[in-house]
């Protein structure tokens, strides 16, 4: 069964905004999705709503990816957290890797009230909670602070992976993560 206009718009926007940024033109989105302009407004209220929904969809996929990565690493919280950096090392070497879509959207969207910013904040908060839960299981003395630090390392890997080809930011971040995880007061 062929996807409907809403799904085609989401798919096209998810690909195009990652490849070209959120400034990609509406006409390009509509052409790629093979939908009429009316569909954009009916389903999303306009481009801003589409961008927010794409980020929401991507966030759910990425959060599930973190959970799969940690699940595959077993039950040890330390290994589960370090597995994230191993996986990021793979992600940033993929030929279509363009960096962190959330950071890129936040930087590109100057309007602080753009609905995409609420989505990116919520995504980061959920990932931080996921990290903090593992840190609590690990018995870390400052799980909230350490989760913030790990998220900063994740953001750094994504940014450096996109802007400094030929480097290994995931390995460097993993080493720093090991120090954070080893903290004992």
From TrEMBL:
Entry-linked InterPro entries: Homeodomain-like_sf, HTH_TetR, Tet_transcr_reg_TetR-rel_C_sf, TetR_C_31
Protein name: TetR/AcrR family transcriptional regulator
Binding region for DNA: 25-44
Gene3D superfamilies assigned: Tetracycline Repressor, domain 2
PANTHER family, sorted: HTH-TYPE TRANSCRIPTIONAL REGULATOR YJDC, TRANSCRIPTIONAL REGULATORY PROTEIN
Taxonomy, superkingdom: Bacteria
SUPFAM superfamilies the record matches: Homeodomain-like (SSF46689), Tetracyclin repressor-like, C-terminal domain (SSF48498)
Organism: Streptomyces camelliae
Keywords attached to this entry: DNA-binding, Transcription, Transcription regulation
Span of domain HTH tetR-type: 3-62
């Amino acid at each position: 069964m062929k996807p409907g206009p809403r799904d085609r718009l989401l798919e096209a926007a998810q690909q195009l905004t990652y490849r070209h940024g959120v400034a990609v033109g509406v006409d390009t989105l509509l052409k790629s999705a093979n939908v009429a302009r009316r569909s954009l407004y009916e389903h999303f209220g306009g481009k801003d709503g589409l961008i927010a929904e794409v980020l929401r969809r991507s966030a759910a996929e990425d959060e599930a990816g973190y959970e799969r990565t940690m699940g595959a690493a077993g039950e040890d919280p330390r290994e589960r957290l370090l597995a994230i950096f191993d996986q990021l090392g793979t992600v940033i070497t993929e030929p279509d890797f363009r960096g962190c879509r959330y950071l890129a959207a936040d930087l590109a969207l100057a309007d602080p009230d753009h609905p995409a910013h609420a989505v990116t904040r919520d995504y980061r908060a959920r990932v931080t909670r996921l990290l903090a839960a593992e840190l609590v299981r690990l018995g870390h003395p400052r799980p909230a602070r350490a989760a913030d630090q790990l998220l900063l390392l994740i953001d750094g890997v994504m940014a450096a992976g996109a802007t400094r080809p030929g480097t290994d930011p995931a390995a460097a971040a993993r080493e720093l993560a090991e120090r954070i995880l080893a903290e004992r007061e």
